Amino acid sequence: MAGPLPVGDPAPADGRLPHDLPLDPSTDFGVYLHVPFCRVRCGYCDFNTYTSGELRGARQDEYADVLLQEVGLAREVLGEAAGSRPASTVFFGGGTPTLLPAGDLARMLTGVRDAFGIAPGAEVTVEANPDTVTQEVADELADAGVTRMSVGMQSAVPRVLAALDRTHTPSNVRTAVEAGRAAGLDVSVDLIYGAPGETLDDWRASLDAALELDPDHLSAYALIVEDGTKLARQIRRGEAPAPDDDLQADMYALADAALGDAGYDWYEVSNWSRGEAHRSRHNLAYWTGADWWGFGPGAHSHVAGLRWWNVKHPAAYAQRLAAQESPAAGRERPDEESRTLERVLLRSRIREGLAIDDLDAGARSAVAGLIADGLVVPAAALKGRIVLTLRGRLLADAVVRALTA
């Protein structure tokens, strides 16, 4: 299970938004639907997920109906404003959304459509564990309006999958990808590099296997050891090696070269796609500061500068809604300093970069040094934007520190 929720102001029981919240109908609006169930807990995972033994009375077969109660509450809170901004993206995340029947996911999507509307051409993504995808599931999701499937591949090497406590086999990844493609969906695969014992040759094999699948989009994330996870305990006891920063840097460089040679463009530090049409529009909304409403236990939301987050456990979440109360645990309005830090942190990671004019004088004076250190593309800087070089992507945190010191 994930760490503690942020500390913020109390959220009202009725879920009402502040009366002075400046809702902007021209700002993109996304919807996130959290499905917090997993068959097993991966040793590295710090997400807000629960196995069957951890549910304490919450039920998977009732979950869609419970979440739809929160969607209805949001519709009531927004009133007439709810229909003024249809969802441009919808994202089913987890956990493992495809542990639920496809019909349950379809009903949740219908609930979003009824409450807010879904814009023409909207991107609708479902995260999927390879073990849970059949052609029937993919077809049913496509019929419901899903446009994109994100398959959790992680690795093509069985012993690396075992080190990550993943239960699927590489062959199931191919089955899931082919089912998604046959259903007419865009398909993305997610990879993780730097697992205990993983070598550069292992990583090359996983990249080659992923490219053989010919997905529309790939994500490649460096393994991060989160406090409280099984992996953190194993490393502390000396049972597994900690990730090697230099090796992970070599793995990233290898991925960027291999994906670039195969026709994929990086558009965010950990994400590549076959052209702009296949970028994850939902995730870009996070990185560019758009609005989104998150539904489900532990889900976070951001609307017009207000942030709030739900209680974490599915049982507590269901109890709040059964009492006709908002499941929000707290909320905040970040100050300008916090918002500036977040804007620099997120927008510097994307291909379009960060506008230099958005920086204060001190930060602008640091740009020349970043160019000299090979961290920022000189030509882009001359056009007024901070765009990271390959070296800059490897040292993105250092760039952010220089721009926010």
From TrEMBL:
Carries keyword S-adenosyl-L-methionine? yes
Q: Which GO terms describe its cellular component?
A: cytoplasm
Query: Which SMART domains does the UniProt entry name for this protein?
Result: Elp3
Question: Could you tell me where this protein is found in the cell?
Answer: Cytoplasm
Every copy of the Radical SAM core domain together lies at 23-265
Q: Which GO terms describe its molecular function?
A: 4 iron, 4 sulfur cluster binding; coproporphyrinogen oxidase activity; metal ion binding
Keywords, A to Z? 4Fe-4S, Chaperone, Cytoplasm, Heme, Iron, Iron-sulfur, Metal-binding, S-adenosyl-L-methionine
Q: Which PROSITE patterns match?
A: RADICAL_SAM
Primary location class: cytoplasm
Supply the InterPro entries for this chain. Aldolase_TIM, Coproporphyrinogen-III_oxidase, Elp3/MiaA/NifB-like_rSAM, HemW-like, rSAM, rSAM_sf
GO BP terms in the entry:
porphyrin-containing compound biosynthetic process
> Superkingdom of this entry's organism?
Bacteria
Please explain the role this protein plays, according to its UniProt record: Probably acts as a heme chaperone, transferring heme to an unknown acceptor. Binds one molecule of heme per monomer, possibly covalently. Binds 1 [4Fe-4S] cluster. The cluster is coordinated with 3 cysteines and an exchangeable S-adenosyl-L-methionine.
> Which PANTHER family does the record cross-reference, listed alphabetically?
COPROPORPHYRINIGEN III OXIDASE, RADICAL S-ADENOSYL METHIONINE DOMAIN-CONTAINING PROTEIN 1, MITOCHONDRIAL
Name the protein family: Belongs to the anaerobic coproporphyrinogen-III oxidase family. HemW subfamily.
Q: What is this protein called?
A: Heme chaperone HemW
Q: Could you tell me which species this protein originates from?
A: Microbacterium betulae
